[in-house]
Amino acid sequence: MQNRVEMDMDERKFAFLTRMGDSALILSQQLCKLCGKGPALEEDMALANVALDLIGQARLWLQHAAEVQGAGGDEDRLAFLRDVHQFRNFLLVEQPNGSYADTLMRQFFFDTWHYFRLQALSQSTDARIAEIAQKSIKEVTYHVRRTGDLIVRLGDGTEESHARVQAAANELWMYTGEMFEADQVELGEAAACGVAPASGLRQPWLDHVAQVFAEATLTMPSPDAWMQKGGLQGRHTEQLGYILAEMQFLQRAYPAAQW
Amino acid sequence: MNAAAELDIGPDQVWGWLAEVSDPEIPVISVVDLGIVREVTVGAAGPASCTVTITPTYSGCPAMEVIAQDIDSALRRHGLLQVTIETRLAPAWTTDWMSAAGREKLKGYGIAPPAQQVVDISGILRRSRAEPAVACPNCGSARTRLVSQFGSTACKALYRCDDCLEPFDYFKCH
């Protein structure tokens, strides 16, 4: 792998954009499964609202990715006709909804990363990336505030809720490392956009998580713990196959079906 | 067709027609009140042609496609033959672009209008205790509380009034 020929610029941008789009898309799909099944009406609506924001953002990123790819495709082709190994989402977002503590902790970890990521990309010298980020961060600000509040409420809640969110944090922690991975695609594209690579988001992310965990009386797992990786290179957990099977069923069974 | 082509249509007239196109989810306000129409140009592709540039409120808002269709059919009804709807992302839509009349109409409809002029909402990672009070659109009381940051649509939060005890929607700052 070390000797691989350098990616050309479009290939690199495409990879970068699908990373942004795929995490939003897969997380949105996961949240959609909870529509009508939230633990309370307000939470049900919040989940659907967040899912809607994420699908809108995924669409913007993947639309741009399809244009960069230049193969005459569009965001729908990318969403519905790629297979597992072609997806570039974080392993974190494909983890199962589990209990509500799992759903919320996954969201809190992602929202916090997403917020700092979009804040950085809002300053991008690539105008298109900057405008998608500037649009998205307004929505994500509400996401990150909600999940921070809820983690505090549950962590500092009952014995049961505390135990559950703590277990969820411990379980999901190993999937947080790759959000800050700075490989060739990340370093190259961040430099091209004039922004700091994702590795630079790690400290602000840790600081915010530590602050919320302290208020929630939760113990933050060690930042130096061993981390799972692979999502950004298309090596996924088995979960993604099941998610795509459901998400892509219609287009696979009835190719080119139109809404 | 010829009659339409002979119409002397200016941008002001088109803005006037757009002010009659209502938001599909909040029918009391128009797309102009909402601040999503950013630009209108007339005549670039022929005498009865028009380009309307709109900006999405929320990136996943399902009403945007309906709004584009409604604008298209409204302008055609008024005699325009070629209507192009363009979408512009930047600068991102903000509730500051909502008209004063639009805010009043929201209130009359039972939705509390955005409480503050937005400078930059994205600076706040945690909900602040110093957020401005949202007045109840039913009884006017300032003793209200947030129930959920996310209401019946992406653009609204759910509140409850501590005086009249009615729940209500709040069009949140964006």
From TrEMBL, chain B:
Pfam families: FeS_assembly_P, Zn_ribbon_PaaD. Residues 12-77 form the MIP18 family-like domain. It comes from the Bacteria. InterPro entries: Fe-S_Maturation_MIP18 (IPR052339), FSCA_dom_sf (IPR034904), MIP18-like (IPR002744), PaaD-like (IPR011883), Zn_ribbon_PaaD (IPR056572). SUPFAM superfamilies: Fe-S cluster assembly (FSCA) domain-like (SSF117916). Residues 127-172 form the PaaD zinc beta ribbon domain. Signal peptide: none annotated. This is Ring-1,2-phenylacetyl-CoA epoxidase subunit PaaD. It comes from Noviherbaspirillum suwonense. The lineage of its organism: Bacteria, Pseudomonadati, Pseudomonadota, Betaproteobacteria, Burkholderiales.
